[in-house]
Amino acid sequence: MSKRIAFTEENCTNCHLCSMYCSLVFSEQGKYEYRPAISRIRVSESDDQRTYAAHVCLQCAEPACMDACPVGAITKDPHTGVVGIDSWQCTGCESCVDACEFDCVFMVEDVAVKCEVCDDPLCVKACAAHALHLVEDDQVDEQGELYREVRI
Amino acid sequence: MKGWMGKILRVNLTTGEIVTEPLDPRLAQGYVGGRGLGTKLLYDELDINCDPLGPENMLIFATGPLTLTGALSSGRYMVVTKSPLTGTICSSNSGGYFPAAFKTAGYDVLILTGKAERPVMLVIDDDRVTIEDAASIWGMDTKETVSAIRSEKRKDFYVACIGPAGENLVRYAAIMNDDSRAAARSGVGAVMGSKNLKAVAVRGTKGVAVADPEVFLKSLVISDHVKESDLGIAFGEFGTPLFVDVMNANNIMPTKNFQYGFFEDGDVINGAEIIDRTLVRGKSCYGCSMNCGRNTRLPEDSKYQGSGDGPEYETCYSLGSNILVGDLDALTKMNYICNEMGMDTMDAGSVLGAVMELYEMGNITDTDLGYSLEWGDADGSIRLLYQIAHREGFGDVAAQGGEHVAVEYGAPDVFMGSKGQGFAGYHPRGMVGQGLLYATSPEGGNHTTGNTIQREINGIPEPMDPFTAEGKPELVISRQNETAFVDSAGVCVFPYMLMDNGIELLAEFYTAATGLKHTEGDLRRIGERIFNLEREFNRRLGFAKKDDTLPKRLTEEPHTPGIGEGNVVPLAEMLDRYYSLRGWDLDGLPTEGTLESLGIE
Predict the structure, then answer these.
(1) What integer pLDDT is reported at residue B324 of this predicted model?
(2) Is A44 within the bounds of a domain?
(3) Is residue A104 a part of any domain in this protein?
(4) ipTM greater than 0.90, yes or no?
(5) In whole angstroms, what is the distance from residue B417 CA to residue B413 CA?
(6) What CATH number has the domain spanning B423-597?
(7) How many contacts (CB atoms, under 8 Å) link A and B?
(8) Whole-angstrom Cα distance, residue B66 to residue B47?
(9) Contact yes or no for B322/B257 (Cβ under 8 A)
(10) CA angle, corner B309, sides to B226 and B457, nearest 5?
(11) Residue A105 belongs to what domain range?
(12) Is A8 among the domain residues?
């Protein structure tokens, strides 16, 4: 069973509040900053600006980022299913960034970062449009519609 | 200093000099940001008698300390300059994504001066700021410009730009950003065009630090409350065209160049019809959950084709009821054209209204236009809009603004505006406080320096007779001061307008972001300072009571059948009391004592 953030494109209004509030959580120690450039969730729009995507890690069953990491800095927790990056081991080679076909791994100050699913995710709370939900993977399977893959 | 980035970026387009300097904390605390800070910088530095379209004029982009914070609807910036439409100071407000992106590059303010020799664009990539050749995009419409810049190497940049209207110095040209957001009013796009500056593209990686994040966690709950209130739900569902029904029901939907307050085809151009016919989806600006934006596309079977944003309510009035176009497709097409050409839909509609009335009177003829232009003629209007943007034929005269056209063609009274700027979509004969507001606005007939609708029409927090002078000077002063602060803080007026305690909440956000303890009263005081500084700026240019006027149609012609029938705007009665409450003299000029008490030097 795996916890993750699910995204429902139809509800998204492209407001970026998820990304703003995520960055507040990951601000440098002692600082509280709205800084989208360090966020673990990023919103993008299609060229015609008619489709939006929140890029947030799906915690893949077989993570391509993990396979791509040359130093073994990326692991998948056997209990929670969450894919994590050990920032001390990360060499900043960006192999994982290239490997993720969903564009959900980001470089922040030469270290790869991604969503590792907070206990009480602020991005989900900030989403007034209800486009983000914290779900268990089996929940997604049952409801099916809850997550629709969007690639931009 | 939390909230602010603490930096001003100055670009001289004549010399190519680019410098960064610290933002003086005293200026920031006294004038906040956006409209206030921009006004203060202009007041201190501008050669006040300069030609608005000359190289000396300063074009200022300014965010506020709440831009890109958890304060509700925090995605805004202001463009402040000397207006080529009114000759006064002006500030034009826009949302979208560009304002937040600009702030992440590390600046609060961008000051543009001079004039580039050839068309250029300014590229701001964090600390790397360059002026690049823009020959290949000059002449493009605003959608093409944004796409051209964002393709290839600059996919993650956000863009503010002008279209052909700005290039051709149309006096009500807009600065457009992202997809169809506009700093629309007062001709700020013409000032940008006069500097040969086609676009500003920006990307950044910095963050906005706030003093007290707890308040902003609480704001998420408040945001949900606002969004789930009756008005919030209606706003999210219908967007601003929701107001078509409100205005029509109250006989204040300006119709046929303000001859009437009711448009019989209102239900063809309202929010519900947009949902039925053109809406693709709602959209938000950066950091806002209101979802009032309208992403639209014209149906395939329509005579008109295209896609884009809107129309917003103001356009439903200006290019709809005001010129008797009761056809959503035609109205939407005109809205797209204005956005693509980069010009204000409100003044475009105001000009069209005046031209149609002059045509009916016989003052403007087929020979002048090269075609006919009866009331409600959408295709003729479309033709004229393109001509205005390119200054072709009659468009060259119309590009000078509605007042210019009305004077030129011998009937000044058909221009429906104040200080040269056309009115927004609220008929003052049915809400006279709004008339006082238009007359005393520092930049003429706009709705962005305050709006009395919530009190006069919606009766919030308590009902008020909309037809009499009683209490109106007090109401207008209060709205003007509050709005001056809102416009300076970097937030959108909507959520704060929808709440009874909006300004109190804003004080809480301002305190939480900056760490500087401020009450609701402090905010009003700062707003009053900003409004007075604008007035003082205009005074130095010779503006006084003689310019605080309304057209005779509002003060002498009785209101047409429906609510408020027979009413006129008692401007003279309201004005003297307004000046006295403001601490201005009988000629409407701020006294030394008033300025001194507000800390204005």
Answers:
(1) 98
(2) yes
(3) yes
(4) yes
(5) 10
(6) 1.10.599.10
(7) 81
(8) 30
(9) yes
(10) 45
(11) 3-143
(12) yes
